[in-house]
Amino acid sequence: MSDQSYDKVRQQIKNLGLKHKGGGSYEKDGKYYGRVTKQSGQYILKRAGKTIPGKEYEKGSKPYDKKDIDKVSKVIGSLKDPDFYKSPKEGEDSYDRVMKAYDSVVKKDDKKGQKLLQKLRDLWKKKGSLGGGTKDNKHVWPASFNDINSHLRRMGTKGDDQTGPETDVKDEPKSIDKVTKKTYEVIITIPYENTEGGGGQGNDDFDDDEEQPEDVEIIKKIKAADEEEAQARADVEADEAFEKLDKKNKYNYHKPDYDMMNVEVEQISESYERKIMVKENINKFVNSLETGDNKQAGEDLKNALADKVTSALDDAKTDVARSMFTGQVGADAPEANPFTGNDIEAETPAPEVASDEMAQ
Question: Could you tell me if 275 and 360 lie in one domain?
Answer without folding.
Answer: yes
